[in-house]
């Protein structure tokens, strides 16, 4: 019987269904945060739980991208090394817990970013305080959650996971700092750029150089391009790209795989992260004369 190749629409629909199912699984993991909060319950109406977990649960219900990227990356790696896979870690760690962990990290970063960019109405002391306290409590809940995973991971693998999560928080926050300090038109006009030695912290030169041909092509089209474009890509490397690279590296390290063996996958993570951020930045300023198209181009943060 002749089979029909799936269309692009079929593939997208299947992917979205997979993401939604994973989101529901991650919500189940979020119940562990609810349990951890019980020791600190100070309100009879359970408002502490809603205060801390509402945004996380909402985000998990909207096709969680980092969680999905984690799950599919793991499945791809296992498919390539199935004959030599020796690590005896629970499958649920890679299929549910790691995806949930990385989605918690991005949720905390989003809460911070809403404060920094005054997005979603987070521009009053009340809303800023709520985001700040929620992010702080979520980070401590994540630490407690990681601690409870220690027995199933073992000491060495637990340290790997904890170290990579800490590196991710640090790198993204430094990227945010660069964004707030240098991502302004006056720095472009005044050519008041920081020396690249200020931008190199936590950026692996080899990984960044994978984008060199793309950066060079863009530089050839923009005035005062060398510094301006270089700084842009270095900034978004920290604030977004590194997220996907850390996901890949964490899975490889937990599975005792060499990074050299999966250099193509690591390079893909870098291109994927750059692609997402460039598209996101473009959407912030894209415009159309058509009213209906403008609705589709609008983002929640900027119009």
Order of helices and strands: HHHHHHHHHHHH
Quickly give the structural class: mainly alpha
Largest sheet: none
Low-confidence residue ranges: none
The amount of beta strand, in percent, is: under 5%
| Number of discrete helical segments | 12
In angstroms, what is the radius of gyration? 21 Å
Gross morphology is globular
Cα distance spanning the termini: 51 Å
State the helical fraction. Answer: over 70%
Instruction: Return the average pLDDT rounded to an integer.
Output: 82
What is the number of strand segments?
0
Describe it.
The structure is a single chain. The relative contact order is 0.09. Helix content is 74%, strand content 0%. It starts with 7 loop residues before the first helix and ends in a 6-residue tail after the last helix. Helix 1 (8-37) packs across helix 4, helix 3 runs antiparallel to helix 4 (91-117) and helix 6 packs antiparallel against helix 10. It has 303 residues and is mainly α. The radius of gyration is 21 Å and the shape is globular.
Compact description:
The chain is mostly helical and 303 residues long. It is built from 12 helices and no strands.
What are the main properties of this structure?
single chain, 303 residues, mainly alpha, 12 helices
